[in-house]
Amino acid sequence: MKPKRVREVFRAMLLLFSGWSLLFRLVIFSLIYGAYLYISTRMLILSLVVGLIFAVPSLYYISYRNKKMKREIALLKDLNTYATTMTFFLQSGKNLRAALEATRPSLSERLQNDIDRVLKSLDEDSLSPDMSVFDKYKFSPIKAFNDVLIISRDEGGDKSTMFNRVNENINFAITKHDEMVRGKKIVAKQIYFIIGAMLSIPVMLSCLSTFLSTQMYDQFLFYPISIVGVIIFFAVMITWLFKHEKKKTDTSMFI
Known about the structure:
By secondary structure, the protein is mostly helical. It has helices at residues 3-16, 19-41, 44-91, 96-103, 109-124, 140-155, 159-211, 216-221, 224-249.
């Protein structure tokens, strides 16, 4: 990963986690990986160093991407709340400004800020509200909803007929997104079970050798190539884990 990209990712992570939270997670991942490798290799310093090396990308693939996915899911629900609540108030007879003001308290802080920008644009030009603040979400059903919003204000018409179809499209898109997320989680659990089972083999052999007072595993570790093999095996398994974490959390809502 290029230095510029690393800086961008780090800044994005700081938007979701505090610096102390990232440090705490880094320590936890390092200790977990280090403990596993120490049991598997019986080499403390090497285990801690390798554990720290793999703890760094874990912050991105495990902590950040999962938090980002949850944030996107929450945003979709928030956008749906925005559309349904706006529809309710518009159908009850409120104008655009009044509907926006009444809808605002039911939304998250992020969408409240967007509503504030729209209201500010109405203050500046009541004929041209700036709905482009929603474009950054790249969720086309909401863009369609806002287009209908402006059309209904400028040209009138049956609001029930105009908004029902676009709200159905929003609900359909969110339902399909939820199905995709659930499907990916099911596949991920199966993969994680396989990875966990494979990673447990060196640990079980090491523990059995200790509890049964045999030298079999110690004799295996006597050769440096064996230690290298254990570390490579660990690296392959963790990289596989990262790969599937990326697949599981790639639930883009850009529809």
